[in-house]
Structure formats: structure tokens, C-alpha cells
Amino acid sequence: MPVTDVQHDLDSRTLTITADFAAPVARIWQVYADPRQLEKVWGPPTYPATVVDHDLTPGGRVTYFMTGPEGDKHAGYWQIKTVDEPTSFTFVDGFADLDFNPNPELPVSENAYAFTEHEGGTRATYVSTFASAEALQTVLDMGVIEGASSAINQIDELIGS
């Protein structure tokens, strides 16, 4: 399994996931840069994602929805802040309604994804920072650690194909 470490810190309002992949940095970058690859790994296995819009450039937006086993749909968006291809990007991640309007009732996070060479492959570091400890606790209670870890762990199968 690629995920090697998961840390959450209510004081700093952060969730950090570390994963190691047996593939070059440029290959891991492609998983996020290509919407068809991204939708294979963004949602957990039981909630596959469909990427609707994908503009991975500063100021760009990525919109998606995940479909649950009962056919229920859950939408979200990324508002891209910075891109340093192929090593990192930052974005705001939020929940949305099915028209991709932000849902102010649910937490928003600032995210920094970084990809570095590590032992012949890539180490990916995913850091999400929330506005408050309560916001972080809300997503922890929603199962974000299990969901994000199972989603990231799907990358191995994708890059192996």
C-alpha cells in the first residue's frame, strides 16, 4: 500500500498523508493532470469520481462528483492556486451542490500536494489545512482518513497498468 503515514494535528488544523510510489515524479503528476486518470483515484473504491471540469492551472477549477453504491452523488471542487509542474500544486478543496456551487455548511481546506524523488520512485505528501480545529474534526468524523487513504492506494494499480 502506498500510504505510509497519516498524521492529523488539531492544534495546527492539518491532515498530512504521505505515500510512496514505485514510479517517477512525472508519472505521479500525470495522475492529477489527466482528468480521466484522476477520476480513477480521487474517490474511494466504493465512491468513484467523475471529473466534469479540469483546469489544472493557477486560477483554474476542477469540479467532480462521487457516486456512492446506492447511486447517491456528492460533489466537490478544487480552486487551483499554484502549479509547479511536475512537483507540486496548491488548491482550495470544498464540498459543493450538484451544480458545483460551494456548500458553506461543510469545511473547506487549503491543500498542498508535493511530489519528490524518493528511493528510485516518488514520495507524495498531501497536506490539508482547515480554518479551525472543528472543521478538521468534522472531516475526520466523516471518515476522511479512511476515504483518502483508500483513494490514494488506488494509484498503484493505475500506474501499474
UniProtKB/TrEMBL annotation:
InterPro entries: ASHA1/2-like_C, START-like_dom_sf. Pfam families: AHSA1. Residues 23-159 form the Activator of Hsp90 ATPase homologue 1/2-like C-terminal domain. Belongs to the AHA1 family. This is SRPBCC domain-containing protein. It comes from Rhodococcus zopfii.
